[in-house]
């Protein structure tokens, strides 16, 4: 078969790229080495983690806040098997949805490992070892990433686990030791803490979610301690882990240089992800690698070989599903001569803990570092009528605006539904709104979004109404 475009990898980068290619009239194929479509995000990432976060949040609320709402339950218990099975059902229904979309757009799906024979020929090796070759004019590599393994932390997938195993545990851990205070560790730690596990987070940096605005990590740390009993060990360098029967012993060096040992029944290693290019045969097409295992691309996401592009987790930038999707669309449109653009500064980052955390644009630390003069306005959820009604009063919205022009430069929030609320900030910043522009727009009452309006009022001239 001969295609205009072949996409390797069916994660959010790959399948979205394939759909956009088909939409703009290109004959398109997609190759996926697993038997189901959707990549990390759908099968072992965004979607299953959110399914478990939702289920566990229901349990936590039923156990801790329903009574205050006047709802009394007896004999509340967790059926983890059912929870995991519901999660699997959510994945399956999305797998089917993507398969349907491929059919709808007449995209040919090949199941098997895709590897370059040369620039225009790709071999697909099925799980049964059967090989077939396809010819292609252009190729989009979207092979994603996999968890980083540290040599002194031997993942046995049983007691020392990655996020993938954490999404399908057979029991609620008694004590889950989470190595890494980033998004994945905190989200999956929250799932099991809500179900009754003691959770200890061991982090090398001096802050959790350290790449986001520092105020967010501080508040999240406070709230997770208060509501879920999380313990944090920041500035701790993990030096080893070993399994003894049903126990995992993790050793770490504390900030004083002393060695301490944590004992738990599970240890989740969530220290980051690395680009995945194994078996792709990039050398056969002459594609050059960049730093840290990434495929090197130019501003148009094209590799050093004309006609071969790479997108998503396998290239530089944030490892986020929506970033991969935007890149997939960009490449497809470029192939047919359009001039799309991505503003990487406006890709929002979200943590789906409760409260949720979200940010877009420059952090306060970045503005200081760059010497930009800015104004800051904050509004706490404890002053929001909507948040009081739902008893979700932790957190705040912080708006950073240019000191002279009032243009919004960054929005950082922690609070109820922050993951959804950040969209307003992205829209405002895409259209280069000033803080006063947003402050003068009507926000429905009572909603959490009023906190955004109030923070903009605070940033404009310190004229928030409700604080
Ligand atoms: P992937 O989704 O990794 O897909 C790559 C695909 O390529 C895979 O299916 C792989 O099997 C296939 N492949 C690889 N090599 C070959 C080959 N040679 N031939 C054929 N197929 C191949 N991001 C968010 O934005 N929001 C979240 O809430 C979120 N939560 C996450 C939670 C967890 C636990 C994890 C692990 C990640 C999460 N992420 C989240 C990150 C998100 O999953 C990734 O950023 C996203 O999946 C990257 O998309 P991609 O298309 O680049 O690659």
TrEMBL record:
One Gene Ontology molecular-function label? dihydrolipoyl dehydrogenase (NADH) activity
The record ties this protein, via InterPro entries, to:
Class-I_Pyr_Nuc-Dis_Oxidored, FAD/NAD-bd_sf, FAD/NAD-binding_dom, FAD/NAD-linked_Rdtase_dimer_sf, Lipoamide_DH, Pyr_nuc-diS_OxRdtase, Pyr_nucl-diS_OxRdtase_dimer, Pyr_OxRdtase_I_AS
Question: Has keyword Hydrolase?
Answer: no
Q: Which Pfam families match?
A: Pyr_redox_2, Pyr_redox_dim
Q: What's the Enzyme Commission number for this chain?
A: 1.8.1.4
Q: Which residues form the FAD/NAD(P)-binding domain?
A: 3-328
What note does UniProt attach to the cofactor annotation?
Binds 1 FAD per subunit.
Query: What cofactor requirement does the entry state?
Result: FAD
The protein's UniProt keywords, in alphabetical order, are:
Disulfide bond, FAD, Flavoprotein, NAD, Oxidoreductase, Redox-active center
Stretches assigned to the Pyridine nucleotide-disulphide oxidoreductase dimerisation domain: 347-455
- Coiled-coil intervals in this record? none
Which reaction does this enzyme catalyse, per its entry?
A: N(6)-[(R)-dihydrolipoyl]-L-lysyl-[protein] + NAD(+) = N(6)-[(R)-lipoyl]-L-lysyl-[protein] + NADH + H(+)
**Anything further noted?**
The active site is a redox-active disulfide bond.
* Similarity comment text for this entry: Belongs to the class-I pyridine nucleotide-disulfide oxidoreductase family.
- Name used for this protein in its record: Dihydrolipoyl dehydrogenase
The species this protein belongs to is Rufibacter roseus
């Amino acid at each position: 078969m001969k295609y205009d475009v072949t996409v390797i990898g069916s994660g959010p980068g790959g399948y979205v790229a394939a759909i956009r290619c088909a939409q703009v009239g290109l004959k398109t194929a997609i190759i996926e080495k697993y038997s189901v479509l959707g990549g990390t995000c759908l099968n072992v990432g965004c979607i299953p983690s959110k399914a478990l976060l939702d289920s566990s949040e229901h349990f936590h609320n039923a156990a801790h806040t329903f009574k205050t709402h006047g709802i009394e339950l007896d004999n509340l218990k967790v059926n983890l098997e059912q929870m995991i099975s519901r999660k699997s059902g959510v994945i399956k229904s999305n797998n089917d949805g993507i398969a349907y979309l491929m059919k709808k757009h007449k995209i040919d799906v090949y199941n098997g490992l895709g590897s370059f024979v040369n620039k225009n020929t790709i071999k697909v090796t099925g799980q049964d070892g059967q090989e077939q070759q396809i010819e292609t004019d252009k190729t989009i590599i979207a092979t994603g990433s996999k968890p980083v393994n540290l040599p002194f932390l031997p993942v046995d997938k049983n007691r020392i686990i990655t996020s993938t195993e954490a999404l399908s545990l057979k029991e609620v851990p008694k004590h889950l030791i989470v190595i890494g205070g980033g998004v994945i560790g905190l989200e999956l730690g929250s799932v099991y803490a809500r179900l009754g596990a003691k959770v200890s987070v061991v982090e090398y940096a001096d802050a959790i979610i350290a790449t986001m605005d520092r105020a967010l990590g501080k508040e999240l740390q406070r709230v997770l301690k208060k509501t879920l009993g999380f313990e944090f060990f920041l500035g701790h360098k993990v030096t080893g882990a070993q399994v003894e029967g049903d126990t995992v012993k993790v050793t770490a060096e504390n900030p004083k240089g002393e060695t301490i040992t944590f004992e738990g029944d599970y240890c989740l290693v969530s220290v980051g992800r690395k680009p995945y290019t194994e078996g792709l045969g990039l050398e056969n097409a002459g594609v050059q690698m960049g730093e840290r295992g990434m495929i090197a691309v130019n501003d148009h996401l094209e590799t050093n070989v004309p006609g071969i592009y790479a997108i998503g987790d396998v290239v530089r930038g944030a490892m986020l599903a929506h970033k991969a999707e935007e890149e997939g669309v960009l490449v497809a449109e470029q192939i047919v001569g359009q001039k799309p653009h991505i503003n990487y500064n406006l890709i929002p980052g979200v943590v789906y803990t409760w409260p949720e955390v979200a940010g877009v644009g420059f952090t306060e630390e970045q503005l200081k570092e760059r010497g930009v003069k800015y104004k800051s306005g904050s509004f706490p959820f404890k002053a929001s009528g909507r948040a009081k009604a739902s008893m979700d009063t932790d957190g705040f919205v912080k708006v950073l605006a240019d000191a002279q022009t009032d243009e919004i430069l960054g929005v950082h929030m922690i609070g109820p539904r922050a993951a959804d609320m950040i969209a307003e900030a992205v829209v405002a910043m895409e259209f280069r709104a000033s803080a006063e522009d947003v402050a003068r727009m009507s926000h429905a009452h009572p909603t959490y979004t009023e906190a955004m309006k109030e923070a903009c009022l605070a940033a404009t001239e310190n004229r928030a109404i409700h604080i």
